[in-house]
Design goal:
203 residues; mainly alpha; 2 domains; 8 helices; 0% strand; elongated
């Protein structure tokens, strides 16, 4: 079996992401243990409770050591989740190109979050590295989940692309977009946007 240069690059980048995750995890747990030694109220449960309060809009991060630890933990968890998601994209090959572009920044964010934990341990207050509004993030996650459901936007987009590739609607994208949009339940403009840059179907 021949491995292309692109596949080789993907594997090397995936290895870098794996190494970053593997090396950062023990450091994260060591630093969180140091927080718990400084203040016995800082536990995984109290940190999750603080993050949950922010996500429900009941409070904003304060200046207590618990809040500082929770901010540092939230930043690390977010960076860790991003890295894992990119790793999955690289290893599966689905969405690999955007993952290649995002991977270096993700590795940087992961180690920046670890550095933030070390700074927070000295009692210096941190802000959420992504300035994320948890409520907005939850809303985006809900939209993404709806889009991925059967009959959702993601399914319709995939169906539109498959219809175009079938060649059943001709090779004129404007005409095809009207027909395909009516068939899959998207506007012609949306279909046209998804067909942009795609080659004409083979007749």
């Amino acid at each position: 079996m021949t491995i292309t240069l692109w596949e080789q690059d993907l594997r090397q980048l995936a290895d870098l992401l794996r190494d970053a995750v593997r090396q950062s995890e023990p450091e994260y747990h060591r630093l969180m243990g140091a927080f718990a030694e400084k203040d016995s109220t800082i536990t995984p449960q109290s940190i999750e409770a603080a993050i949950r309060r922010w996500s429900e809009g009941d409070a904003k991060p304060g200046r207590s050591l618990l809040d500082t630890a929770a901010v540092a933990s939230a930043n690390y968890q977010r960076a860790h989740a991003t890295t894992e998601r990119l790793l999955a994209a690289l290893t599966s090959g689905r969405g690999a190109k955007p993952a290649v572009l995002a991977a270096p920044a993700a590795i940087g964010d992961l180690w920046q979050a670890i550095a933030g934990l070390a700074v927070a341990l000295n009692g210096e207050p941190l802000r959420l590295a992504y300035s994320h509004d948890f409520r907005s993030e939850n809303a985006r996650a809900a939209i993404a989940a709806r889009h991925g459901q059967p009959g959702g936007y993601g399914t319709k987009k995939a169906a539109a692309i498959a219809e175009w590739a079938s060649g059943a609607h001709g090779t004129n994208k404007d005409v095809a977009a009207e027909r395909i949009g009516a068939k899959v339940g998207l506007s012609a403009g949306t279909v046209r946007r998804h067909l942009k840059g795609r080659p004409a179907p083979k007749s």
